[in-house]
Design goal:
Four copies of one chain form a homotetramer. Chain A has about 200 residues and is mostly helical. Chain A folds into two domains: about 5-65, Homeodomain-like (Arc Repressor Mutant, subunit A, Orthogonal Bundle), CATH 1.10.10.60; about 70-195, Tetracycline Repressor, domain 2. Chain A contains nine helices and no strands. Chain A has helices at about 15-30, 40-45, 50-55, 60-70, 85-100, 100-115, 120-145, 155-170, 180-195. In chain A, helix 1 (about 15-30) crosses helix 4, helix 5 (about 85-100) packs antiparallel against helix 9 and helix 8 (about 155-170) runs antiparallel to helix 9. Chain A is elongated, with a radius of gyration of 20 Å. The N and C termini of chain A lie far apart (about 55 Å). The relative contact order of chain A is 0.11. Mean pLDDT of chain A is about 90; it is low at about 1-5. The interface between A and B is large, with 43 and 43 residues. Chain C binds a DNA duplex (31 and 31 nucleotides) through helix 2 and helix 3.
Chain lengths: ~200, ~200, ~200, ~200
DNA sequence: TATTAAACGAGACGGTACGTCCTGTCTTGGT
DNA sequence: ACCAAGACAGGACGTACCGTCTCGTTTAATA
């Protein structure tokens, strides 16, 4: 056994209340955006008491992040890889599709405006923003092992160059975040990886 | 004459008030962060009346952006170019240096949380976030004209791959935003540009 | 010099807001009682903002006292006195009539539960509770001057014996507070005043 | 017989819990006053659970009254009576001494702010406030039987005139509640009783 | 001696109200 | 006409208690 019960006493926290609050928060996020979320509004819409919300989340920002994490699709590396380009293409298209929505926009805003040092923010960042990047790292490793590419120098920077543009377009909004962009991004990424220390 | 008066009656708007408000807003941004800025606080600190502030800016977010734009160094392409790599290196290092500060952090936050459709937000975005990217486009054009590189396909995506990682590290914070990063980024960018349409 | 204006600037406090808040507070007092008054409820019913209420009164208790003082009938000694007994009778009956109502009950409760050291409480006490007692002192003085009675020793205690029973019945509620009581009280009071230092 | 033990199974109510709650409530009353008492605070200070407190008392006000009644000295008529004046003096001084304390103040407040129709309030009123008055009635009866005074008309009003001033000074606070007051009050009371339908 | 059921402490629940802060508007008197 | 000052209605903040409700844990009469 791993984790002996720390003397569980008193009424246990209600999972229903948690669920209802998260659902209400999510609805508000989708309808009105991150800026309009408030503990007050979530309490009113969900029928959950304010103190209960504060017992579960430290502030509106954490609640928003929790709501956005709930049921967020896992961005993972494809298992069967027919080649680096294809695998990357499938993954990047997935990510772009997920983020080119209201939810994606709210995710970016939530991360940007959250307290960068909070535990919750770290979890959110790792789970939502960086998980795709980590999956990308696995794709690269696999390609190296298959001999498809050489081990890239400065892999962290390479990963940033591949995954940052998605987040960038999402937040800055100077150019559309669409399939065409995803395809061009993957093409350039593959170029970069294949031409390493080129001729 | 300077200011063609459409009627010129009554007391003219005070530039001093504007300046004082911007200065106070900037101080609050640097000391307490974007989340703590408020018209109330700026009015109190600057001695400027609230209605005067509302006359100049629509809300706290716009005031913050205005304060951050005031006196922001112009990121421009170096005039004398000894080569694409050197020029890019100089510029990227400048940008990283500017953004790896409290001010840079506040700029990113302000952009992320601003109304994306407002006039002010667009101006802020073009002036602060995208000006480096546009200067980069000029550097690339010049290098093409010098014959140093071929015309890159998908130039918008290439520019994103070069400039997005800076903003990405600033906001996501998973890796440091420092000189080492700037050097690696430029190295990779040059690789990408030179190896276009591979070996 | 007395009290020159302390540089009156800014928007002056709204007397309308004050009035509306007092009226709403009074309604709640009459309908639901002192225990149900709350700044929240007064703000909601009156349409006056909570901060405005707090600007005018320190807490719900003071607001309640202010509402009860507003328009409270002045209990004064009758001008034309046909004799101590008659004058006293008229006044005591007036007081009993005023206090044998919901308003009277709320007044007693408000005084009992208010911070005894606050400025407002003192004013309330003097204006509402003790004003009748002071008027009674004047009646006694006049009767002395007319030679109707001798100067009573321990006038403070005598006044308490006359006026305390009203308040006592109101709060303790062991016996009714009605006209019969008023008549008996005055009769006894006159006996006490006339029989001073016995037969 | 009416209602013998209806089954009496399971753990019996703990007298210790009752005692601890009353003690904690009393401490809070003495230290912070009636306004600061709360079930929450009593539970925290006593280590007794909130439901246990609610099982014993209906609300904070009743708990406060119970705590104030616990161990309250019985105000009774002295057995050996050397005369009406002496007996009254001894009793009134006792009462004044008991009420001229923090406890006395809290008692008055508790009574004033309690629900006047509750069972507990009635018990509290009879036991604490009116017991002195009833003892006074016995003193008067005894004096009548001894032939010391005539049977007073309107005995209820006379009793109010003697006992109300104590409560009045306690709550209104316009004059001190001290020995001098007690002496003057008794003197006036005796005057009133002896001069009945005077010369 | 074992069973069993009520009362226990702990503590989360949905609520209400608190008193503070800030919003954006409006209304003064002063420059 | 514009300023500063500052009051206004509105509304969210985060906290304190309310009185109720599960929990798992005593505890003592009963079987």
């Amino acid at each position: 056994m791993s984790q002996d019960s720390p003397k569980l006493r008193g009424r246990p926290p209600s999972k229903t209340a948690r669920r209802k609050a998260l659902a209400a928060a999510y609805e508000i996020l989708m309808q009105d955006g991150l800026g309009r979320i408030s503990i007050e509004a979530v309490a009113a819409r969900s029928g959950v008491g304010k103190p209960t919300i504060y017992r579960n989340w430290a502030n509106a920002s954490e609640l928003a992040m929790a709501a956005l994490m709930e049921g967020h699709p896992e961005i993972a590396a494809a298992k069967k890889q027919s080649g680096l380009g294809d695998a990357l293409m499938r993954q990047i298209k997935d990510i772009v599709q997920v983020f080119a929505t209201t939810r994606g926009r709210q995710i970016a805003l939530a991360l940007a405006s959250a307290d960068p040092d909070s535990e919750m923010t770290r979890a959110f960042r790792n789970r939502i923003i960086l998980s795709g990047r980590e999956a990308g790292r696995q794709l690269l490793d696999a390609a190296v092992q298959r001999g498809e590419i050489q081990t890239p120098s400065d892999i962290e920077v390479v990963l940033d160059m591949i995954y940052a543009p998605i987040f960038y377009r999402l937040l800055v909004g100077h150019r559309p975040l669409d399939v065409g962009f995803a395809e061009a991004l993957v093409e350039k990424a593959v170029e970069l990886l294949k031409c390493q220390s080129g001729p």
